[in-house]
Write a structure and sequence with these properties.
By secondary structure, the protein is mainly alpha-helical. It contains six helices and no strands.
């Protein structure tokens, strides 16, 4: 079932909703809802993506169906972004990257890191640290993406 644009949630006041920050997303992945009665649709989708990643971990035989549902949610998030943010030069960066794919990667990283934290013999295990570090990198990527920041990936060479 593909989610069509007319089924996407809209802000009740008709305005553009600001995108949630990385802390709100990570809290949603952990199952902590916001205090607001008017929860952001992106947070609802983030909770669902994290739940699907947990299900995929516990039931690998259902992976194909779970991955299909994840792809539908990623498409729904991307469609919501296109619908909510008018085409302007200041919002082009939101259209260039798939926000849905970024949320999905963050959900997967959070579920993996949380699983390792709860199952590793020692919390100081290098795998636990690496998993949480990966989530932190993705959270920084999210912040750069929603604020329009550009991460420097190649260091400039010093003149000889």
């Amino acid at each position: 079932m593909f989610v069509r644009n007319q089924h996407l949630p809209r802000h009740p006041r008709g305005g553009i909703r600001p995108l949630p920050d990385q802390r709100e997303l990570v809290a949603a992945f952990g199952g902590h809802s916001s205090d607001s009665d008017d929860e952001h649709p992106l947070l609802t989708w983030a909770v669902t993506l994290a739940t699907l990643h947990r299900q995929r971990h516990t039931d690998p035989l259902a992976a194909a169906g779970i991955d299909c549902r994840r792809a539908e949610l990623v498409a729904a998030i991307d469609a919501w972004v296109v619908d909510q943010f008018p085409r302007k030069r200041s919002t082009d960066h939101l259209r260039a990257e798939s926000l849905g794919a970024t949320v999905d990667r963050m959900a997967a990283a959070h579920v993996h890191a949380s699983h390792l934290l709860h199952t590793a013999e020692k919390v100081s295990d290098a795998r636990v640290h690496a998993a949480w570090y990966r989530l932190a990198l993705l959270a920084d990527e999210w912040t750069d993406l929603i604020t329009g920041g550009v991460r420097e990936t190649v260091r400039s060479r010093r003149p000889a």
